[in-house]
Design goal:
Elements lengths: L1 E2 L3 E5 H6 L1 H9 L3 E6 L2 E6 L9 H6 L13 H12 L1
Parallel strand pairs: 2-3
Antiparallel strand pairs: 1-2, 3-4
Length: 85
C-alpha cells in the first residue's frame, strides 16, 4: 500500500483481502487507486453528498407546520458554511 496525502495506491489483492477497511477509508475521504500489475485500473472516491435547496426542504413541511425562519437565519447559515471551509 502506497499512501499520498489523500490518495492511496493498493493492489487488487489488497482490496480483496480487506474491502471493508478500504471502504471505510473511502468513506472518510481518501481516494483509493486500485492497481493490477502496477497499472491503475480503478479509482474509488467518496460519493458526492446529496444536497437539497432550502426551498425543497421547506416544501416537505406539513401544511400545518409551525416552523419559521427568523430574520437571522441567513446569517446563521452563512456562519456555518464559513466554518466548514
Amino acid at each position: 500500500m502506497i499512501e499520498d496525502m489523500a490518495q492511496v495506491l493498493i493492489s487488487e489483492a489488497e482490496l480483496a483481502r480487506d474491502i471493508a477497511s478500504v471502504l471505510d477509508r473511502v468513506q472518510s475521504g481518501t481516494e483509493i487507486v486500485i492497481e493490477r500489475n502496477a497499472q491503475p485500473i480503478a479509482v474509488l472516491r467518496p460519493a458526492d453528498p446529496s444536497r437539497r435547496k432550502l426551498s425543497e426542504i421547506a416544501a416537505l413541511l406539513a401544511e400545518n407546520s409551525t416552523a419559521t425562519i427568523d430574520p437571522d437565519f441567513a446569517a446563521d447559515v452563512q456562519a456555518f458554511v464559513d466554518r466548514q471551509r
